[in-house]
Amino acid sequence: MDKLLSELMDEYKERFDDIFPLMMTGGWSDKRIYAEIRRCLEEGHKFDPDLPDGARV
In three state form, how does the secondary structure of the chain look? Predict the structure, then answer.
């Protein structure tokens, strides 16, 4: 994990008392992951993977 991602993950955990679910971002570029974590932090909400009802993770 690179330094920027580590810092963003730490900030996310501190803010939401939960880890950012990297396993839900398989195939995403680093740039997209950084942007999504920043968006969550800026908008004040946890990541929503937008899974169909009844989906198991």
Answer: CCHHHHHHHHHHHHHHCCCCCHHHHCCCCHHHHHHHHHHHHHHCCCCCCCCCCCCCC
pTM: 0.84
Structure tokens at 46: 């946890």
Which pLDDT value is given to residue 26? 86
Cα 22 to its chain centre, rounded Å, is 6
Over residues 8-37, the pLDDT tens digits come to 999 999 999 999 999 989 899 999 999 999
What span, in angstroms and rounded, lies between the C-alpha atoms of 31 and 51? 22
What are all long-range contacts of 42-48, with beta carbons under 8 Å and residues at least 24 apart? 46/16, 46/18, 47/20, 47/21
